[in-house]
Amino acid sequence: MNADSYDAMPPAGATAGEVLTRYLHERAAGFLRGLSLRGENEAEADALLRGSARRIGGALHTFGPLTDPAWAEPLRAELAWLSATLGREPQHAGRLARLLEALRRLSVAAPEGQEPVLAGGTGGAAPPAVPAPASGGPLALGAARAGALLERQLTLARTRAHSASLQAMGSSRFHALADAIAVLVSEVPLTPAAAQPAQAVLPQLAGQASQRLADAAAALPLGRAAHPYNADAVQAALGAELTADLQDAPWHQVRILLRLTRYAAEVTRAEGDTAERQRLADAARLLERHREAAESAAAVAAAARTPRIAPATAYALGVLHADQRHEVEAARFAFSRLWQPAVPGARRE
Amino acid sequence: MNADSYDAMPPAGATAGEVLTRYLHERAAGFLRGLSLRGENEAEADALLRGSARRIGGALHTFGPLTDPAWAEPLRAELAWLSATLGREPQHAGRLARLLEALRRLSVAAPEGQEPVLAGGTGGAAPPAVPAPASGGPLALGAARAGALLERQLTLARTRAHSASLQAMGSSRFHALADAIAVLVSEVPLTPAAAQPAQAVLPQLAGQASQRLADAAAALPLGRAAHPYNADAVQAALGAELTADLQDAPWHQVRILLRLTRYAAEVTRAEGDTAERQRLADAARLLERHREAAESAAAVAAAARTPRIAPATAYALGVLHADQRHEVEAARFAFSRLWQPAVPGARRE
Ligand SMILES: [Cu+2]
Ligand SMILES: [Cu+2]
Ligand SMILES: [Cu+2]
Ligand SMILES: [Cu+2]
């Protein structure tokens, strides 16, 4: 993410517009810094560009009543486009690493009698410290082939995403966006509401973002997800394509609302209590894991549709798909326990 | 199981040999009743034969010091043979039903927004009340084909097991065993130790059986299994054949020791407290579920080795295999929580 800290205190008694403008200036400066860094370190530059774009877009969304919508709405759309375009390459890379690691884990035996150390308390699967090599057999061969197939497909997707990024960065569309960001460093088109004191306006708008998050999270099947091994997420593994999407979408939505809430807190500098900040950060990490597992499962299903693959390869992909849906379920479980730690009866059952 | 209740109270002050003999008589009578029932209701008769054979063998094992080993050991071996032979047909039938139900569950979408009711507290997956039909797609087709393949293979295995049962029941080997059981109704070859008072001997031997169970259960990775989504059981899904066997064997062993403990309690009529009896019954059910899931997963892996299956079929079998290993993990989780409900730190993590 964006490592920039926004730590200069705003003047006491500032207007809402002043505080928001100050935040947007900082983030726009980060964006332009990312742009100039691109020749040196592309990955770092892109992460800075994406983080800045997401934060500017998020602030414009949450504090929408303070800026001219005729200016803000199209800018937000362009920022979302850029963020999505630049995000694809690292996503494909991360997905490939995740799936190859899962295949490795599914193919090795933990040394007998050893209890692997658990990776944190989030229910994640810790790879065994000293993996024994998988001995042969058709299933192990299938795993190797499945790994090679995924590597081929995801590397191709990554290369294409890289080309698309380069093309986007050279486009007139990006040029116009960079111009708009440069303007944002100097001036932000504010509404009359922005003239009110920051304390009178910003906490209220940030509170609305928190409320949207709370409402969306409350609508999730948290009670159900807090029961381990409910097998809900894996249920979609052989169903119609749409099944997983329908099931996952509300969780993805909460992930986005959580991000907006965290960005809003950057603007208002609402410190909250440390425990609450940590809880939001942990929740964000779990929903990120949920998304990664869900998208990795989808990539596996796509690979399984490759014509003329060997049955052993397809079998390994099936195991891997179910494993990733299992990870989806594990992330939901951990999120449910984190979000509502006092689910009645959920602990013991 | 054997529905016979062994409820006649033994005379107060009976010897150990008298109490054991009385129990063996009852079970031998059940065995002979099963034999005569076979013409009418084969399934019920076989269940009675198996339940009686397991109980006689179990009592001879736990209370071994009370009977002549030269007589008891070969008899136990023959009882184990019969029990295993008669058990195969219902096992194949149960496995097929379990796998078809799992395939159905993996292929349908739960109606959106509905939270299916959890099936008890054992972490089991409750099928949705009103399954929506799976719409097409290559994966759904693969699931249908995988179901047909499993149906073919397990029905064939079932038919073969049935023939083997019939052949066994007509064999001179079975004839000799039935003769031995008939003798057991009239006389049991006891050792001098059997002349001691029942209270001085039986609780001690039954206690040794409980201790063997407690030791074996304590050697299981219960702390690890009590962490949901540790992904241990699924780890073996693509590994060498031996991986799952090595991992599952200690759990299967505890299942057998648990059964011996419960049978020993039938002999001693140790009522225990009701809560403890219920706990052992629940534990037995969970380990039975563990075994069924593990053996079902193995049957799926075997089906996946069928030559010339379509990739979509293999893919569905891979998903199903992982699902059943997931069920193995869920059973271990539930057993761990039941067996040691106060695992430190296991609740919250
Ligand atoms: Cu919006
Ligand atoms: Cu490049
Ligand atoms: Cu023995
Ligand atoms: Cu028959």
Automatic annotation (TrEMBL), chains A, B:
Domain CHAD: 13-344
Listed PROSITE patterns: CHAD
Pfam families recorded: CHAD (PF05235)
Top-level taxonomic group: Bacteria
Descriptive protein name: CHAD domain-containing protein
Lineage: Bacteria, Bacillati, Actinomycetota, Actinomycetes, Kitasatosporales
